[in-house]
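INTERNAL TRANSFER SHEET
From: sequence group
To: structure group
Subject: Nucleic acid-binding protein

Please process the attached sequence and return the structure record in the designated field. Keep the field labels unchanged so the import script can parse them.
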Amino acid sequence: MSLKELVGQTATLTIARTAPFGYFLTDGNEDVLLHINEVDKELVEGEQVEVFLYVDSHGRTTASTKIPEIAVDRYAWVKVTDTNPEIGVFLNIGLQKDVLLGADDLPAHRSVWPQVGDYLYITLRVNRNFLLYAKLASDQVIQSISQKATRKDFNKNVQGHVYRTAKVGSWICTIEGFKGFIHESQRDQEPRLGEKVEGRIIDIKEDGSVNVSLLARKEESLDQDATLIYEYLVSRNGAMPFSDKSMPEDIKERFGLSKGAFKRALGKLMKDGKIYQEDNWTYIKKS
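Return from structure group:
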């Protein structure tokens, strides 16, 4: 097997000779350069060293003593370092050169492409020219590393990164290792691939995977809606031409709330003694 066929993997090679710019390593048949920038300590001829092999920008097989967490058929979470709307996103795998996850492997809608700082669970693939590219983990791979949730995990808050996204919903892998699904009805907007999200477990499936909601709990949502309405009242000097008799479309356009949510928030504010209604207007109650 030639060293080029080991691109994207680790190999133990012997230092054949030194050079001003690094070391030449050998497997007994071929030599490969270990550049001085890819070494973290001084090496001597005859010493064996474990290296990661990749092809540089000139098409030459190159070695590094910096061993990435990932390799061909070995997966890890890696950070997005840059994006290019024409070709894809770049990921830091621990080498001087970032690896590309191509546009063809990303969602059709660029609005849910990963952004800098997001994390993706990937492995490496090698193309016909022996260049390294990122490859997203499949649903089966995520399943193989996932932990099974139990009934005691119901209603728990969880955090995780989106590993797959679609119009019908988003799939996440939580910090606990649970494989989770977020139905489109359980999110205000579609999260990005690789985005870190926080929600709560609303169902546990027979296979130990979970359904997750990113929507605020009812009491949290009620507080948020009430605050939104009260702040709008303050901005209008304590009076607004909206009440529980207002038309649903007017409420939706002004506050982004359903009429039911709007009425619940008004009810809370009235119960707390903060507002009152009169002639289809709502007013802040003066203390």
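Handover comment: The chain has four domains: 3-64, 76-137, 141-213, 218-284. The first strand starts at residue 10 and ends at 19.
Transfer complete.
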